[in-house]
Amino acid sequence: MVTRRSLLAASAQCAALAAAAPRLVLADHPGDARLVFVILRGALDGLAAVPPYGEPRYAALRGELALASPTSTGGALKLDGMFALHPSFKNLHALYGSRELAVLHAVATPYRERSHFDGQAVLENGGTAAPALHDGWLNRSLGGLGNAREAAIAVADNVPLVLRGDRPVTSWAPSRLPDAPDDTLERIMDLYANDALLGARLRDALATKEMAGDAGGGARGDGQLGALVSATAKFLAAPDGPRIAVLEATGWDTHANQGAEQGQLAARLGGLDAGIGALKRDLGDAWKHTAVLVVTEFGRTVAVNGTRGTDHGTGTCAFLAGGAVKGGRVIADWPGLTERDLYQARDLKPTTDLRAVFKGVLRDHLGVAAVTLDEQVFPGSAAVRARDGLIRSA
Model pTM? Predict the structure, then answer.
């Protein structure tokens, strides 16, 4: 039975949703390319996620955080003669074997300080200093996609900086409130039928909710990907859905009790691995057109600190997965780990600018012109050449 109180409550809930939700712009797509951009907030330890087990000084410098070699039971998962994956990365290792994962090491943005806030700002605004740009490079790239109205969605409570800007995008996150009954929603739709603004927004919000399906009831708030991955796959797999999605996961700031094969970081890596595995499964045929780019704001120190963790560093790793990716390789201009090789005698020295990776994916996967990348998406970055060969040729 629908009571006056429940109708008013549901009406208020839907009105707020309609007023706050950005309009979902559905695409007239020139192709099937999908891009998922995953931000790991807190600074991932790249030497733990992708240990350079073949580096002579690795085990001594890492101490108790050094992972067992690939020849040991439960040790790291071998990639080549130098690099391995953390043992939590079972799905990623399988993707590497099927040439659907490229691992990038010794990467960083141009940022060289150690503030999470500023580091994430540079990662997302695509500049060289945190205050320089107030919109995101991924939003700016939407203007370089020809005449297509390419849709992008942030699968998060709020739109991250990387997607903020002049181009219309939308956001979605699982509701913390119980769903209103269908007949109540029908009454509310009738109520707002003649309201040009709220009526349209409400229809868009309900269409997005329907596209998300059962994923809308998933838990959130623990900083993990969880149900967000399932919803992302539903959005991207839909014929009239968005083609670009941004997700974020927190909890990568491992100052204390980081762990090695087991522990705090291993659990986080396992969650990331499960999420990417689920994304491939749930995307189905759309996976072959998908690139998933996983990045973090900076790395962590090479040496262990006094609380059995690592402190803020510089160089780290990134992952590029998907059926559209030219994988099965580690891409690294490896700087080494001798004292003279380290950045400021404490960090992995970055040798690859992440903007080169972003440019390569945007150019070769989404078709953004090189001049647009150099002048508009990443202003003043002509000296940073797009990385070639990240995406499979058609």
Answer: 0.84
